[in-house]
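@here heads up, posting the sequence + SMILES for the zinc ion run so it's all in one place. Ping me if the SMILES looks off, I pulled it from an old spreadsheet.
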Amino acid sequence: MKSGTLQIGSVQVKVGEKKSFTQTIELDGTQVELPVFVINGVNDGPRLVITGGIHGAEYASVEAALQIGRSLQPEDLSGQVIILPVANMPAFKTRSIYVCPLDGINLNRVFPGKADGGKTAQLAHWIFQNAIQDADYYIDMHGGDLVEALAPFTIMSESGNAETDAKALKLAEVFGIRDIVKSKSQGSTIAGAAGAGVPAILTEAGGQGIWTKESIFTHTDGANRVMRWLKMIAGEQPAPVPTRMLNQFIWLVSEHTGYYYATVEIGDTVKKGQKIGMITNFEGSVLQEVIAPEAGEVLFLVSSLSINEGDPLLSIGAE
Ligand SMILES: [Zn+2]
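bot reply: prediction finished. Complex structure tokens:
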């Protein structure tokens, strides 16, 4: 429970106020714009932080965060909501896949960031210090990148802190996407948050540069359900939806540069040992057979014919 004046960067937002502004932050001499919505509710309540566009071309996440920021009013709010709809503006402007173009680093691998690190690490540090670390709950909205198709799912980070992890799981269940994936990777927004005791989820909907009404709604409806659950906005408690816990989140990676031919689709169930695609060289010879290391379901799938060594190919979620 937090109340009182909020300070984000150089801007103060009093109780009962809403401000929408663009904060300029400096990363080693490069000026980066960061659009911000702050809605400081008239009544006390939790502080919810929402980010979109950590990957700049995941447009459903950006548009969903914008819609939430535009529609929320302090008169209707108990608590505080901070929204960064385009957390990675350099990537958004350049339609960059995976990485921030300032130094070629994936912003979702360097949280909680470093004040004296590279430019992307500094950006993570600013976002973490100014928004994430003092949140009561945190939702980081994503989707498939420009070259990725995906079926919606929610990721929670297993931090080992039982109380934080239990709250994050509850948050994921309330958000309402069926598949919940547990991740142990470090450096993500939600791992950084969990490390600071902030219950957090990363929600995935949309992809391939397309921002459908349906994929935007998956994010906005989920956030709406969370705010009703936390009694931050009026409305009935959200009806429970069936969820499925996927304890394994397996990423397959290309070992070569060439052409990528997947032989499965999003949502397909695969068997352990099943051939699910191949990489060929530019003359057509097979360089890599892609084999499912475990049985499970295809959660995201790279749809690009062009593939580089080290690029993700697809992920399998398994119970
Ligand atoms: Zn992403």
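MO: The chain has a mean pLDDT of 97.
MO: One more: Helices lie at 59-71, 89-94, 119-132, 162-175, 189-195, 213-229.
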